[in-house]
Amino acid sequence: MRTISIINQKGGCGKTTTAVNLSACLAEKKRRVLLLDLDPQGHASISFDLQPETLEHTIYDAFSPSKANSFKWDDILIELDNNFYLAPSNLLLSFLERELSDFQGKERILLGRIMELQEPFDYIIVDCPPSLGLLTVNALCATSEAIVPVEPSFFSLHGLGKLLETVRLQEEKTGHIIKVQALATIYDKRTRFSRELLREIQEHFGENLLTTTIRMSVKLKEAASFGQPITVYDRGGIAYQDYRALAAEIILQEEHPAQKHEEYSLKPQRSEEGVVFRYKNPEANRVMLAGDFNNWSPDEGVVARKRSDGVWEKVIPLDPGTYQYRFIVDGKWVPDPNNPIKADDNLGGINSVISVN
What we know:
Layout: E1 2-6, H1 15-28, E2 33-37, H2 43-46, H3 60-63, H4 73-76, E3 78-81, E4 84-87, H5 96-99, H6 109-115, E5 123-127, H7 134-142, E6 145-150, H8 154-158, H9 160-174, E7 179-187, H10 192-205, E8 209-215, H11 218-225, H12 230-233, H13 238-252, H14 257-265, E9 269-270, E10 275-280, E11 287-291, E12 303-306, E13 311-316, E14 321-329, E15 332-334, E16 342-344, E17 350-356
Parallel strand pairs: 1-5, 1-6, 2-4, 2-5, 6-7, 7-8
Antiparallel strand pairs: 3-4, 9-10, 10-13, 11-14, 12-13, 14-15, 14-17, 16-17
């Protein structure tokens, strides 16, 4: 079972649209899918012509201490189509922060509930609220992957650093590693501005940017207003083509589970010796590490070793703080391909960023 959060604290980036239509396209491809609506506004639920305020049972039941002993998934799951189920939400979710303020283990409630599922699912897709609060933290604890929809706009790029930093801090706090992938949405290839910003998104995320791009289409808004996924509303347009391609790309990743595990293991990690940085390139003659933690002097203060599998490990003790760094691979300075958190170096290049608490 793959568990994927759709996250972005910025509204209007196509987050719910992606959660709804990716789920529908995965179900269309014979995958068994559960869509969890964690947004108190209930937009994912509305996208299927439901009226959240009229629902007796919602995903709120999974979190509320008052429902702890009576909660049943069967009470809240709505079968939308063959292989496709929804756990709806409504405004009651907005009261959870206060209701759970003193609750022990409140960040892992959703994880516990998912473990109680009796029916097997191939995918659980979580539509998160446009915030970085308790609900999003629960989603990150309960899922192993995250997709960040990013529309080509200055404000969207501006908030990415904070979002990715939140994910990284969550990993450090819980030890739960999350694979983060970006998805370019609402893309208008006719404008030079959109093309330039797409290139900037590609520079920031590198290999962690999904190859599928969701083009701007009025049909997506129309489909939502009619309470239908794009698989029902318009199967002949570019919106259906794009989300179908996205589902195919996600499914293709199923064929490379070892590679996915390796991506997790190559991220910077703490150890008793310090922070371990890893770079896999068996053919490289020399890999070094430089950053503002050693005045950008390659391998100064670094314990270096090369493993038999071609992974170069660099260990350096770091005090709490935020650092920028790069690898130097046979003389070429490159950002860390397994760290999605990037920053401009003010010289036209890209550095990787790590924070240590």
